[in-house]
Each structure stands twice: as C-alpha cells, then as structure tokens.
Amino acid sequence: MTIENGHTVSIKKIDAISDEYVLQGFIDAHIHIESSFLIPSNFAHLIVQHGTVATISDPHEIANVNGIDGINFMINNSKKTEFKIFFGTPSCVPALSSQFETSGYVLNAQDVDKLMELNDIYYLSEVMDFKGVINKDTDIINKINSALTRNKVVDGHAPGLSPHSILKYVSSGISTDHECSTIEDARYKLSLGMKIIIREGSAAKNFESLHPLISECPGKYCNSLMFCFDDAHPNDILHGHINSIVARAIKYGHDFFDVLKITCINPVLHYKIPVGYIPLISEIPINNFKCSQKSILDFKFSTKNKMLPIIVCINNQIIENYYS
Hints:
By secondary structure, the chain is α/β, with parallel strands linked by helices. The chain has helices spanning 40-47, 60-78, 109-116, 130-134, 138-148, 163-171, 183-191, 207-210, 234-237, 242-251, 256-271, and strands at 2-4, 7-10, 23-24, 26-32, 52-57, 84-89, 121-127, 153-156, 176-177, 195-199, 225-228, 230-231, 286-287, 308-314, 317-323. It has one domain: Metal-dependent hydrolases (TIM Barrel), CATH 3.20.20. The longest helix has 19 residues, at 60-78. Residues 22-278 form the Amidohydrolase-related domain. It comes from Borreliella valaisiana VS116.
C-alpha cells in the first residue's frame, strides 16, 4: 500500500506473509456526543485512541436546549479536529409534545427543511415520534420528506411496536433502527429492508441479544448491520468504544472480515459519508494496531530551567503544580 499526502495512491498484492493488518478506523453509526459531557473536538480526542475515526452524530440534546444555534455550534466545533463527525438534523425537538416536556426550543418542519439543505447535514436523525409517523401527522411526515427528497436517509427509533405498526413506520421511508432489544424484532425489521444498528453503550446494551445476527445464515444480514454506542458516558469510553464491541464479536466466533464490514464499511455506504474505504483510491483513515510499549521515560522532557505547569494526580484529585 502506497500512501502520499494522506491519500492511498496504490494497493498491490504481494506474496509475502504478514501477521499484521492495515485496517480502516471504526465508525460509530449512532451517537449523541452530548451524553459524554464533552464538546465535539474534545470528544474526538477521547475516542480516537480506541480506533474510532468517525461518528454518525445526532445533536438532539443540544437542539432541545438551544435549537439551531446549538446545532451550528456542534458542527463548527467539530471542524476544529481532523476526526470526522457527520451530523443529522434532529427530527423531534422536543422529543415529546409540550404536554409531557418543557424544552428550550421547538424545531418545526420549516426549520428542519432549512437544515436539511446544508452540506454539513447528512441525514434526518432518529424519528422518535413513531405515533406521528403511523398516524401520518403532517409535521413529522414533512420532516421525513425533506430528507428523502434530498436523497438523505432517515434514522428510526421504534421500540416495542407491533408488526403492523412497524410496517407503517418503515413504509414512510425510515431505514434504520437502533432500538431493537430482541432478535425477533430485529429479524422482522431486517425482513422489511431496515438496517439494524446493534447498540452497546452506556445506557442501553443490546449486543448480547442481537450479535447472533452477524453469522446467522452465513452472511445473510452482514450488509444490513452496524454498531453504535448511542449514549456514551465519559467513564465508559475511557475504557473502550466501538473497539470493545468488535473484540466481543470476534471473541464470540464471528467472521473477522464480516465484523470489519459492519463497523468500517456499512456506515459509509448507508449514510453516504465522504471518508473513502479500502477498495477505493481515496482519503482513508488507517489504524496500525501494533503499538510499541511505552514507559514513563518516554514522556520525559526538558524544562530548560524554566518553571512549567504540570498536571498531576494527588489523592485522586487533579492538581496543577509548577515544576522545574
């Protein structure tokens, strides 16, 4: 593999045997960055160390408080890092009607339509108002159509619906769901053409129930699955992100390359995100997972006889002290 200026310019097969792989980075197919209590640029620094190089992100929480200004802040802040964050327009702000929730903003169909015109918006985020979809409520249907008419996909949120209701929900043009908690529910939605995003995050964990789909009827569902965290608390992602889901899938005996397809390629194809992938001559984020061991001496630096502020941990408290 020849790389020039961050781009792969050639890939050539050789006969030499190697025990190393060059992998694309992982993609989280559905996440709310706000759940990490971090701004996008800082969130990126935290999860890139786990091999994640891109996220499909729903800025619902900040929109619920600060509306369009909040969404624009997330987009603009994300541009301060090379990490790839692809945002959708929240479809349900507030999540529930004013009868049940007091929000800082109401995002109506006209607002959504304007946001969907932006090049920085890649899809319509999870449609939580499944009752509105099933009953063909004008506002939510217009929001869905504002995405579909621009050839942008629509994410779903459909827990616990009856088969008849799911059929109505899918027929509106919604193409994913990350809320499946049983394999039967996931199989039915897959049979209707939906993509299932297997979630294993801080708040909800469905991997154990759904992972058999990866190898069911060899490869039957492989093209229609993705992985996500959904809500990612900082104390959890300190210990792992999508890499932890990948490791579990491989530990359970699922095909290595099927798992990589699910987490590296399927989100790119479904959301039409411009990141490139290995078969293409394109910009490709690459991880080398063979890292050398580091010792404390590797981080030694010269103060040049100046007092420098150093962050240290004393009695479980983060303290800034000056050292020379």
